Please model this.
Amino acid sequence: MMSSTVLVADDEQNIVDLVALYFKTEGFRVQSAADGVEALEKVRRDRPDAVILDIMLPRLDGWEVCRQIRKDSTVPIIMLTARSEDVDKIVGLEIGADDYVTKPFNPRELIARVKAVLRRSQVTPEAGATVGAGNVHIDPARREVYVAGKVVPMRNKEFDLLHFLAQEQGRVLTRDLILQRVWGYDYLGESRTIDVHIAWLREKLSTSGADVQIQSVRGLGYKLVPLQPGA
Model:
């Protein structure tokens, strides 16, 4: 089986060398980029299988590189941040990153995260039948969500999360179950990710006129239920 190619975009050469050493030992091919412009060029030209992207890149920061990549590619992206603040992680998720790692990091953990996002990206879920919940209809084959007949744009994980909630509508889904079914059993990130995506989904359902809502069940998880009158 052909080995996967990972692009490491970081302006600290010692980090690039360390990451490359560990990844090559695991059978990966490794490319590198020292700034955001070079990273973007290599993603578009060479089509790597995964991208490790430092936020604080010269010329073009990691957030903007991620935004540009997401305009035409679903390549898995893991962001590197020197800070542990939730805001960095939330921004990364919002613009399309799949995961994030805080510096300093264990190279073996980084390898595990890359392997995990690669496994999830290579799984092609069965399309299945259209799922309905109130005036919300979800078409897995087209990966489109309709509210009252109109398409509501969704990020990949927003779609997967809403699809799962709709399939199990009315049932309380624990955070652990959601992580397992939507992000994958081998997801290594934080459960805070669920809260962020739930907030985005709530906003989209509300503004699009959906007659269902995502309800929090204290200490347990979430469920999709009909919108309460006056809500």
